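Continuing the series of single-chain predictions for the mutant panel. This is the parent chain; the variants come on the following pages.
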Amino acid sequence: MIEITTTNKILKTNKHFVNHFLEMKSKNSKNTAIAYKNDILEFFNVNEIEVLTINDFIKVNFINAEEYILELTKKGLSSATINRKISSLSSIYNWLMKFNDNASGKALIMFNPFTNLKEERPVINSKETQFLTKEECEKLLNSFNINDLLQLRNKTIIALALTTALRKSEIINIKIKDVTTSGEYDIIKVIRKGGKNDLVKLQKGVKNLIEQYVLQSGRDFIVNQDDYLFIGHSNRNNISAKLSPNTLNYMIDKVCKDVGITKKICFHSTRHTAITLAIVNGANIHNVKELAGHANISTTNRYIHNINKLKNSATDSILFEAI
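Parent structure:
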């Protein structure tokens, strides 16, 4: 039987109940678990998870949840950030509500104070992610001097992103051994959002860039197979740690500015670009879903809707001879 003891630890595993919750979340995404941990620590205003007790969670009520939203709003946090924090707290309460004792009919937690906050939560301002045209992609890719190791790495990352629609987390976690073949195809093994393993087909030109980058960085596909594919470089010395998501955002922003692209581009824009270009060029929606790694085809359909909205816009019927 699994139960939480009076010492706030899970019986049998002897783990603090919040750490057990975070460990379960980390199975799907370590980044999600880290975000949950930070949100829980912030709400309860503590520095360590271990000091939290079941009673700390029991004492929180709906008013506390409302006040927390007001506090975050006054700090100027974005609506998306506030909603994420509330979702984190709601998630652990939902998990705690699963602990029911059949023998006594008692529940550990009766209510989730963060569950009915639809009116209190700020409305997320959904901004369309900017994407690059095919011409802008060509301009970016032609701007690199591949004799320079850092520029070769950056070109390889962008070429990979623009042809596979991989997410930042998927790219930075690729290891050299993940670049392989499946039958006659060059592929990369990736871990998708949610921890799902997937195979992504590589274009020949991108595979050549990867091979050139590995060689120029002084590594070998066999000897260094456990290295992260993309690593830091300082004065041509390798820093074996994987890149951070912020590095990719900084890199794409700088490269776009260097070539005169004035759109507000972040690294996620490369993913949006790859999906959009695939649809524009006639790719089947189910193939695009697989390319994007979408769990639900309705997510892919949103891209098609946005493209069709522009393609079949009513503005095309408003014509003036003077223009």
